[in-house]
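Many introductory courses stop at the sequence. We go one step further.
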Amino acid sequence: MNRRAFTLIELLVVIAIIAILAAILFPVFSQAREKARGATCLSNLKQIGLGVMMYVQDYDETFPMSQYGGGSTGVPQQAWYSVIWPYVKNGDRYRDAQGVEYSWGTNGIYACPSFPDRNQSGKYGCHYDVFADYWNWPVGGTDARHRVTPISALETPAEKVMITEKGVNDAFWGWVYFGTWEWDWVDWIGRPPQRDGAERALQRDCDLVNDGDGNATWAGCGMMPRYRHTGTANVVFFDGHAKAMGRGQILWYRNIYVPVGLPAQWSSEGWYPY
């Protein structure tokens, strides 16, 4: 029987074909893996959103605070992850020296598989204007940053983003909410807010550095949605449904602006005099 080995040219052709197929298929496999991670992230947000809505029903249809206590208040600092923990029973759970249990949204359903730092807290951020913020200020009174918000105050809950995955927090602050102020989302500040939906939304998409648009020195990437999943960011809306949103689809007036919660001097409508 006559056996003939591959010639060098034939071998090189086979190798070239394999290389071409690998170049075609590897990105497909990578996208498939990212799709799976995105599906896990979306499932996380659905569970978190359900936990928030259960809290709202138990507390006179009012949303929780984004954070409270700390500083001079004499109350241990807490974030919204802590108050919904009894409803989701998932994620990190700690106990401080006084025996107070708390959560900072580090792992479990709070961990997006595509987030670059698995040990960081605050991977998902809540709506700053609706989830009241009393950090380092007395609860109630004139010093409170803004008030808790009832669900009845939201005219279009199905269009407003309640929670979104966001960028990596910087070394100085652990954001537990996402930026809702107009200057974070558009190139200018307007009064009243534009009502045509065309706000020239910034497409922030960064983790470690600010991109120079809008108020980069204040908001940065740690407060903005992050489009990790093949160009989409997962969000959950105030009616409880979750959805993947592409870059440029989240518009400030349509999906972010809620004219409630903040006193006039702290309003999202224009300059935020911090």
